[in-house]
Amino acid sequence: MVHASRDVLVHCDALTVFDFLADGANNRLWREGLRSVVLRGGAPGKVGAVYQQSYYPGQSSIIPGTYRITNSRSGAELEFSVLYGPVGARGGFYLSTEGDSTRVRYALDFTPRGLRRFYWRDSHRLLEQEVFQVERLKAVLDTPSQQVA
Description:
- There is one protein chain.
- By secondary structure, the protein is an alpha+beta fold.
- The protein contains four helices and seven strands; from the N terminus they run βααββββββαα.
- Strands 1-7-6-5-4-3-2 form a seven-stranded antiparallel beta sheet.
- Strand 4 and strand 5 (77-84) form a beta hairpin.
- The longest helix has 13 residues, at 120-132.
- This is Polyketide cyclase.
């Protein structure tokens, strides 16, 4: 199994951070290269919600992806599973309160199968790049005009 995670401290309460993350439409505000996010099924931000994304990495054509929210505990935890995309990962956001701030851990796991198990280093690099984007989440949520009310 390939694993990557990264933590940041965001200067907002846990419910604000959770609500922002649970709404997949907000992904475009903090995930680099993401061009569109559309709710394809379920209730927004709830278990079973399916989001379709279009990702443009810059050097190639648009890459489609789809994920489903698999677990949701308001203000504490939001987990998802990639249904379709370049890396079929499972992951989540894990929130904990620290004073008037929230620690956000973004974690991804991927089990390479078939020929991909020979390229686990490439998979690890992709996961590391993805979880590093949580730094951008911090920048967005620490900017007062971007905070969700």
